[in-house]
Design a protein that fits this description.
122 residues, mainly alpha, 2 domains, 0% strand, protein heterodimerization activity, Transcription factor CBF/NF-Y/archaeal histone domain-containing protein, chromatin DNA binding, DNA_Pol-Epsilon_Subunit
Length: 122
């Protein structure tokens, strides 16, 4: 992240990276602690004096929710399509099995034997 922010050709020492990393960790812990303390009031960002982040965060949250809803709907549609395909394949298989069974039954049936009078047989 640090390299992405700095212009090309600018190097940063390991100690500086470590310091930024520690500061970020402290900030996250602070934000988490404040959020827990103010969550019951429903306005932790305002209490922590981060009002300028409220609108962008709400917009990002709404975009995330829309994306998740779209993914969920796509997943449900995919599952329905898969179930539909499986059902049609199962029906085709059952139909083929029934046809095979009927064919075998017809093959097993013997033609009725017609008995002719003895005078006609000779």
């Amino acid at each position: 992240i640090i390299k992405e922010v700095l212009p090309d050709g600018v190097n940063i020492s390991k100690e500086a990276r470590s310091a930024v990393s520690r500061a970020a960790s402290v900030f996250v812990l602070y934000a988490t602690s404040c959020a827990n303390n103010f969550a019951m009031e429903g306005k932790p960002m305002e209490e922590m004096e981060f009002q300028r982040f409220v609108t962008p965060l709400k917009e990002a949250l709404e975009a995330y929710r829309r994306e998740q809803k779209g993914k969920k709907e796509a997943s449900e549609q995919k599952k329905k399509d898969k179930d539909k395909k499986a059902d049609s394949e199962e029906q085709a298989k059952n139909r083929d099995e029934d046809n095979d069974e009927m064919r075998k039954d017809l093959e097993k049936e013997e033609e009725p034997e017609i008995k002719l009078p003895a005078s006609v047989e000779s």
